[in-house]
Amino acid sequence: MEAGSRWTTWWQKRDRQRAGGPDGPAADLDQLLGAVRAGFPLAPAAHPAGYRCSCDRVACPAPAQHPVSFAWQTQATTDPEQLSRWLSRDPEANFITATGRVHDVLDVPAEAGRLALERLTALGVEGPVAAVGEDRYLFFTATRGTPQDEDEWWPSALDSTPDTMSEHPGLRWHCRGSYTLLPPAALPDGSHVRWLRGPEQPLPDPLRVLDVLTDACTEVGAVAEEQWLIG
């Protein structure tokens, strides 16, 4: 099947099966392709099934916020044709992006995120930023990659044990071996993951963003020094 036919089929299925983001399925597709063009590796994720998660796991700890496959690190790709195939099979799918390759993500409570975004804008610090419903902000930064000194490599445990998410409400650093949801994504409560500043923005230095986020978390009572989880 040609790529154009795949996209047309996906639009039609998605329009029938899912309300999608506030601007509809065509805008959803444009956002996913924009992330691919920015080099963000994507893999399919679970989606809402009513008020539950499509994975059907009893008491899923991260409903509609986790990859479909345990092999998500191998699957994650920037190939538009593979994205087309995934969407053809499951037009309702959310997508995650694997961190620690092209980008890292600093993940904070929304109150701290709003404060930090204002300050970063005033400082002239650019970079993609997404909101997860009304609860969290995701700040996309350049990645630390794989440091030469392995003592400086920070592994990620957060997403292999998502139950820990509720135990770490402060700042989380998603790096090598981790992932986050990527806009557009739907959540079981009816909210969405949406871009506030899109993936076409240049990726800033993570340590510069971290300084601002740490101060913002402290000011709103999510003390980063005590609740900072890398992963």
From TrEMBL:
Pfam families for the chain: Prim-Pol
Record-annotated DNA primase/polymerase bifunctional N-terminal domain positions: 32-207
InterPro entries (alphabetical): DNA_primase/pol_bifunc_N
Composition skew (Polar residues), residue ranges: 1-11
Positions of the UniProt region annotated as Disordered: 1-24
The protein's name: DNA primase
